[in-house]
Design a protein that fits this description.
Helix content: 25-40%
Number of strands: 10
Bound molecules: adenosine-5'-triphosphate, magnesium ion
CATH class: Alpha Beta
Strand content: 15-25%
Order of helices and strands: HEEEHEEHEHHHEHEHEEHH
CATH architecture: 3-Layer(aba) Sandwich
Strand order of the largest sheet: 6-7-8-3-9-10
CATH topology: Rossmann fold
Largest sheet: 6 strands, mixed
Length: 263
């Protein structure tokens, strides 16, 4: 029912088709010299879906997401985002694409000399070219509230804990309303309680804004909380795919090894 209240609460991406494939990867290959990192990567990410990628260190998880945003060029295979071939995009088109994709780097990467508010204003004025200060204030406050940090608006990053910085980093990525989020190890270096909070935040963001996400993690609690679907990457390929609970009882020993510490 389209009540006024519903309209106000509409997510950032109102045209919502859950069967739409937002990222399509087929037969993706990428080598560095003689090192064949990606041998055959296949993945379809659907609108509104959270896919967790598990894999040992150095398997090419980060390389895969760098291919998705066009920072690295694959050697072979299909890679489309919103139906467009990333390899064929001009610099301008890549820029536009990156405005629709939020990329949460491991470190959070805030500007240390700016307050939290200024950190959040930056993408609004630089990326979206917003000028209306009221609109800017409203969006900054809204997104900070969303990550539970409205109190920290005038603080410097150095006054925040690691978990809070991660939240601000997430807020700064979310403030431009990305349709896709790529999380590279969002909970690394955080204590279990803070990790859990960040994982729950990722889940809430998916629910609230219908964002489609690829979440790379070693943190099985994060995988359990956030995933609709899990893929396991090994030696340049995805060797298994399923729900968290399905993979937990997989026949494949490599797959099961990730779940060892889970009860
Ligand atoms: N730009 C590059 N040039 C050369 N080699 C690279 C480049 N980027 C990544 N590699 C190599 O590709 C392999 C996969 O790296 P990648 O960072 O994707 O691993 P990962 O699965 O993300 O590992 P981790 O879990 O440790 O983050 C590594 O051996 C790495 O050295
Ligand atoms: Mg990595």
């Amino acid at each position: 029912m389209d009540t006024a209240a519903n309209i106000v609460e509409q997510p950032a991406n109102p045209v919502y088709d859950k069967d739409e494939v937002v990222i399509h990867i087929k037969g993706l290959k990428k080598s560095f010299g003689s090192k064949h990192v990606l041998k055959n990567i296949n993945l379809d990410l659907k609108r509104g879906e959270n896919v967790v990628v598990l894999g040992k260190s150095g398997q090419g998880k980060s390389v895969t997401i760098q291919c998705i945003v066009g920072l690295l060029k694959p050697d072979e295979g299909e890679l489309t985002v919103f139906g467009e071939d990333v390899a064929l995009m001009s610099d301008d088109e890549l820029k536009q694409l990156r405005n629709k994709i939020g990329f949460l780097f491991q470190g959070g990467a805030l500007y240390d000399s700016m307050t939290v508010r200024e950190n959040l204003e930056f993408p609004l004025t630089r990326v979206l070219k917003l000028r209306d200060q009221n609109e800017i204030n409203k969006r900054v406050e809204e997104v900070l509230d969303g990550v539970g940090l409205l109190d920290a608006i005038d603080k410097m990053p150095s006054d925040l804990s690691g978990g809070m910085r991660k939240r601000v980093g997430l807020a700064r990525t979310l403030i431009v309303n990305p349709e896709i989020m790529l999380y590279d190890e969002p909970t690394t270096g955080l204590d279990p309680i803070t990790s859990r909070e960040i994982s729950e935040l990722i889940l809430n963001m998916q629910k609230k804004y219908k964002i489609s996400s690829v979440i790379i993690t070693h943190d099985m609690e994060c995988a359990r909380i956030t995933s609709d679907r899990v893929v396991v990457m090994n030696e340049g390929e995805y060797i298994a795919e399923g729900s968290f609970d399905e993979l937990k009882t997989s026949d494949n020993e490599i797959v099961r090894s990730f779940f060892k510490e889970q009860s």
